[in-house]
User: Which sequence fits this backbone?
């Protein structure tokens, strides 16, 4: 699938540097993500992909460079202000609350406008109960979207990793984001579950969301991503059409350490 050049750039990362001690985890990286696309971010372990997500979401601040989102300069913005602009994420290691049901996990992510105040919530007044019902109904709708509504009342920790990752996506969608950053959303999943996530990214994109997905499953990237960026040692190695990126000899070498090994190249496809 080719990237649509006419789509507006939603996220623009330019010459970003992030150092930890003497190591540049991100070393002058740049990439553009266009609106309403599924964009794959790939690269070997330690390339700097998660650090980049941490920079976009304001968990860390870049030492150099700029990150712009829909006309806003994200540098030095607090995570909650970046979230309020419409950026949300999931984590490489699933982060759900223990002791909470699937539905409650998703409800914690809902930033719906509340019509009642704290006082009404404290006293359990009808306006507060109406807020609670709206959030619950919206959360059930999000669970339907990720096909987890049948598990709504179960404890999240009793579910498989694949199911927990889908709950995390539903929770992230609760803030009505414009851009969702998925950090290895299919880790620990079998191929059928991974394809289900791929289809979900298309549904979200068709609803107008932009998806940046860190992914090691190359089959998924070529099947579902319209654009791809390859990161290596904190820097841009290649970008463009996913198939072309993955076939790039420099990308093959970055993953496997040497070129022209037909068996290993096959494994990436
Ligand atoms: N908080 C931190 N403090 C110090 N070093 C860090 C920190 N976070 C990341 N790093 C270092 O930055 C580099 C990039 O790590 P990062 O987790 O971003 O890579 P990644 O591409 O997400 O790798 P993986 O595919 O294994 O998840 C690594 O060398 C890592 O050890
Ligand atoms: Mg990572």
Assistant:
């Amino acid at each position: 699938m080719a990237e649509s050049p006419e789509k507006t750039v939603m996220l623009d990362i330019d010459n970003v540097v992030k150092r930890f001690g003497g190591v540049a985890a991100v070393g002058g990286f740049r990439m553009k993500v266009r609106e309403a696309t599924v964009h794959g971010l790939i690269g070997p372990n330690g390339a700097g992909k998660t650090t980049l997500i941490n920079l976009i979401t304001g968990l860390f601040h870049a030492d150099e460079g700029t990150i712009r989102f829909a006309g806003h300069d994200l540098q030095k913005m607090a995570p909650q202000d970046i979230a309020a602009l419409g950026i949300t994420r999931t984590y490489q290691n699933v982060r759900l609350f223990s002791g909470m049901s699937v539905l409650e996990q998703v409800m914690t992510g809902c930033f719906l406008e509340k019509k009642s105040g704290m006082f009404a919530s404290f006293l359990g007044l009808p306006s507060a109960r109406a807020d609670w019902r709206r959030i619950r109904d919206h959360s059930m709708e999000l669970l339907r979207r990720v096909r987890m509504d049948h598990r709504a009342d179960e404890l999240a920790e009793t579910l498989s990793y694949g199911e927990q990752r889908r709950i995390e996506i539903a929770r992230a969608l609760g803030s009505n984001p414009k851009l969702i950053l998925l950090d290895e959303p299919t880790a620990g999943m079998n191929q059928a579950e991974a394809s289900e996530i791929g289809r979900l990214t298309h549904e979200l994109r068709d609803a107008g969301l932009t998806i940046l997905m860190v992914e090691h499953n190359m089959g998924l990237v070529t099947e579902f991503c319209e654009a791809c960026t390859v990161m290596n040692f904190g820097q841009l190695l290649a970008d463009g059409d996913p198939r072309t990126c993955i076939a790039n000899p420099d990308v093959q070498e970055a993953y496997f350490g040497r070129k022209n090994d037909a068996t290993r190249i096959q494994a990436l496809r």
